[in-house]
Sequence to fold (992 residues):
Amino acid sequence: MITLLKNGKIYDPAHGKDGVVEDIYIHQGRIVPKPLDNAKISQTFDLAGKVVMAGAIDMHSHIGGGKVNIARMMLPEYQQQYQLKQAQELKNSSDPEAHICTPHCSHHATPSATDTGFRYIEMGYTAAFEPAISPVNARQAHLEMGDTPMIDKGGYAMLGNDDYFLRMLAAKKDQKAINDYVAWILHATQAIGIKVVNPGGINAFKFNQRRLNLDENNVHYQVSPREILQSLSKAVHDLGIAKPLHVHCNNLGAAGNFETTLNTMSASDGLPMHLTHIQFHSYGTEGDKKFSSAAAQIAEALNKHKHITADVGQILFNQTVTASGDSMMQHLNAKHANPKKSVIMDIECDAGCGVLPFKYRDQNYVNALQWAIGLEIFLSVEDPWRIFLTTDHPNGAPFTSYPHLIRLLMDKSFRNEAFAKLNLDAQAMSNLTSLEREYSLYEIAIMTRAGASKLIGLNDRGHLGVGASADITVYTDQADREAMFSKPDYVFKNGELVVRNGQVVKVVWGSTHTAKPAFDIGVEKDLKDYFDKYQTMQMDNFKISDDEISDDGRGSIVVHKQ
Amino acid sequence: MKKTTSLTFPIAASCPACGLLCDDVILTSAAPVDLKNACAKGITFFEQSFQTGANESPSIAGKPCDLTTAIRKAADILSKSKSALFAGLGTEVQGMRAIMRLAEETNATLDHMHSDSTVRNTLTMQNGGWLTTTLAEVKNRADVILAIGTDIATSHPRFFEKTVWNTESLFNKPTPEVIYLGVPAEKTQASISPNGTKPTVIAADLDKIPEIVNALNALLVNKKLKAETVGSVPVTTLLALVDKLKAAQYLVAVWSASSFKFTHAELTIQSIVQLINQLNETSRAAGLPLNSGDGDSSVNNTSTWLSGYPTRSRYVDGKPEYDTYHFSISQQLKSCDALLWVSTFNPHPPPESEAPTIVIGHPGMRFKYEPDVFIPVGIPGVDHTGLMFRLDSSITLPLKKLRDSQLPKLSDVINHIEAALLSTDKVSLD
Fold:
């Protein structure tokens, strides 16, 4: 059975296609070359004038695992309000905090697994990656992602605060031993990348340290975040996985943290690193309020350091919840929680977490400036292949607000109108209106498709070339980009039509993407001893087998090789 | 699982008998049950499990029938129901996944049998949050353990052996000091370490715990108390305790919501959380809420990621709703028009109900009044595999199949009921 998508305007940056009119043929879930003239075409979609892109890929979104579920559990009142709003169709009301949002911005920060899959696919996203899987909690993360329909998923396993790794580093174990451990973690947790959150800091918090700078030592192990970053970025590089080390820098959210971020860029000695939700790490200390934008310095450094990629972690105004592995900084920030509550955890000599609700307000100086800082970074980083569109869902805003964010990037007058409504002191501290740039459809396709796929190493996703998995989104070209990106005409998942006019028409289940580099299984000898002595579970039970993901008849594992 | 395992002893197993979920238990023989590393509670669980037949038959009103007939009858009851209550919910993740789908299909209300206890913790967490820790952190970091109103060992027997008496720890810490508050001295014997170290016991009546914890909070922030005793405990004792808590490198405060059998216990838990938060201003401290069992942590976690809410929730036309008071078993029994009771780990019988009752559960369950339908199913971790959350919710472990069994899995039975229900719907539509 061959499906023909006819006459669409193709935006496929992986192949340099910028709005060319072409046909796409789909057979058995993949994009195939034009068949022979006598081949039977079973289904044809006439897409004349429509915008055709690969399915979008969210390379950083907290969609599953312990802290996401804690966020759901601790905020029942928020979900009830959300449902009430939906029921009463109050989304157009004049809620002062939401006046920048439009009806398309549903702002649901704690969707269930089912809703997560549905809301993503309805916007034309066909994959999302959970960026903070704590290895001991990986089974739960995969259970939740396994119950997330419609989209592909995968995750990055967190290292660098686990006592096993820090012991190795303190004992100056050779890089090969570190590499074997990192590879073992990728296998055991069924992850596709490695992340480090507040390198060494989460661990240091357990020893009662309250801040950790890049060159400051963890009191117990006497190793610094810089050494952790060097070791882990080298391991990721040596193992040959595509996804660069995913780095949540030290000093999240603290005024003046941009210097840590700038210094972090050089910590890997030129090896690739990805700095995540960089907006939260781009703060200066200028002005009366000692909080200012350092977006210009950060963007300049990003433009210069070609080995560094970043996603923004844009904030948008409204109620949301921040769920982070960074127990140290979340504990420090707990006083800003709104409503005032926080769940902080030390987890299993492995990780930590901190979950706090937040309400970003456009009349609040800091929040307004955070909003502007994110956009300044987007507009000042020159290479769209090295900057990614995220809100760090749900930390800056729910992923459902992506269409709104896309409009802010593509529509200068819309952006400037929004800016004019912000806290006036914040306006005075931002150069946003002097940034003339408007993103093109091609650049949006890079950030949300081709670039993300290349970064993670998905090979057959994020592009529309022959052999690609037929994850395809079709939009009506509209001047209102928010409306356009909120409601695609069609979404195809593995070649099947699953969304029509923004509504799910068929429920499907995506794959789990992983990377499994070769390693010396001899690493298990020491690990087994470590588990037996210090952990509270058996090493064998720490490992997640392929069957656990694929045995229910709907999940499947894709292993990506470079 | 479809795969049949050829079982050869010894088998390493995870024990679902309590929230510690010990996965170092080794079954060396099933008849008689011979276990290595198991506690009394674990031995009881496995003995009880292996004593029950692996081929018990379903019944309708006490009369044996085949599985298909029982499933059809259950579907029939649910098809006529408008406000079904799915209660007990003694199951693991896979069972709960199936139950959630059926609940959505039937607009049912969901409540776990131990929610009265769980809700005390959940309300606290939803009101102000908390700062908690997990077992391996206790094992490697804790130097002081404060057990409030619980002896710990009765509900979680291997707690001390596994996380307190360990001779090796990552940071070479000494064996922690165990301090009991509000626990009778005779119940603290199980915490005496193998080398004879005894706990510190601050005796007090359980119902005095609220005021004692409040007093500790006051003393911690240097408020002077006019009283000389609080809940019969001398203030000097409490002051000495506060000094110990402040001096601890890593204090772990343990409580069990199920033992807090006094009104508005959530406020006392909140007060414990406040104590922990205040200590964290200058030193490190964390809480460890114990759970009650019968899969409570598993069921509430699964429910939360599937619907957005823990149990005491319901579906209305696909939309989940949550209410910790109205959706309780005791409230819903007053008005539900069908009761589906699930208890797979233990033979806990259903509460009495006027409504037609379907019981799916432990094959050893016995009834005062025969339910309309009884479907015995496999015991997770004995008759079939499963997935289970530990008490600290961060760890999920696989349960193993330990015997050849004819008993169906709960999730399969529920899925069949759902299928029968959908086909009934079709018939009636035609």
Notes: The first strand of chain B starts at residue 11 and ends at 13. Residues 54-114+295-429 of chain B form a domain with the Rossmann fold fold (CATH 3.40.50.740). The first helix of chain B runs from residue 40 to 51.
